Fold each of these.
Amino acid sequence: MAWIQCNYHSDILGKTMGMEVIIPEPDIFYKREELLKVGTFPVVYLLHGRNGTGIDWIRNTSVERYAMENQTAVVMPSVDNGCYENMGGSAYWTYLTEEVKAKAEVYFPVSKRREECFVAGAGEGAYGALKWGAEFPGRFHTAGCISPVWEDEQKLRECQRKYREHEGQDRKLPELLEYAEAPQEDGEYCDRSLGELFRALPLPRNLYKNW
């Protein structure tokens, strides 16, 4: 895998922001010529919890292995303090929903097709993923939710309820994958749930059947 640390200027926030990005690359199973034929890769936008950054996923989970096994790109944006709202005079929610995906699609070979775009998160990031999918239907095929928490629990429950009420009715709303709540600091649980999430997504996995 190619792990890329990308820093760029956010026009919305007026400062430098960053994202960690994993892109499939040649290894013992995949030749360079084969990967070049793919063009763009399915992509998972993975959101961190409070007081975290995108690099937390690299440090604390096997996300690189999951990405390689599924031949999938992973975009892990840093959103200061896990702030998935516009508040305190800072437009972090606008930044996430209007800039992050657009930047990733320009800078990296990631798909723009709804069928190949997924969003997920843990802790406050799970709330962010649910909210992103609910407020912008048509962008993501699936929203993954690992141990969701939010300071306004009513907002979180309303967001989850919206998915359940529209299950099987609103085809633009992402499918919802939920994983039982556990303490956010339980890294083993988070990693295991992330692995289950990748296995549940409709991804190409071993594209060339070499193993």
Amino acid sequence: MAEDIEIDIDDLERRMKGAMESLRSEFASLRTGRASASMIDPVQVEAYGQMTPINQLGTVNVPEPRMVTINVWDKGMVGKVEKALRESGLGINPQLNGTIIMLPIPELNEERRRELTKVAAQYAESARVSMRNVRRDGMDKVKKGKSNGMPEDDQKFWETEIQALTDRMIASVDEALEAKQAEIMQV
């Protein structure tokens, strides 16, 4: 009867890594003083009757550390892309040069840097919460196994494995947060 309970540690690890990937994409969208093509990923443009990511309307490049350029393929879409960038809340003023839209990245002031580190910390905390929820699911399966006659040694083994996985993944979240905060605060 105890064999009915299957503890899939690989599934738990996959779910935790998914939370980590989500955190990395959220960190990539945070605007630091350095230009990054991924910072415009969340911006959508009304194009051809549907909302479309900018990277599907033109080529996104980072020619210098403080500049992002978008070479829009369709001349008729340049105005819409520029408008979407202005209204996106990125805090960047696009400059037009024919079909090329240039986004100069302004230097961040100290107050803005501190705000961004707090936002990064919030993203990291939500990733930790997701990982703890996955841990709870695994521990619930162990408890279910206990009530179905799982040997105590197996229980202890699985609880230790799940906790070790959780500790490892949360440590990687903490490392990513430290690196991102250091990048944000770097002048």
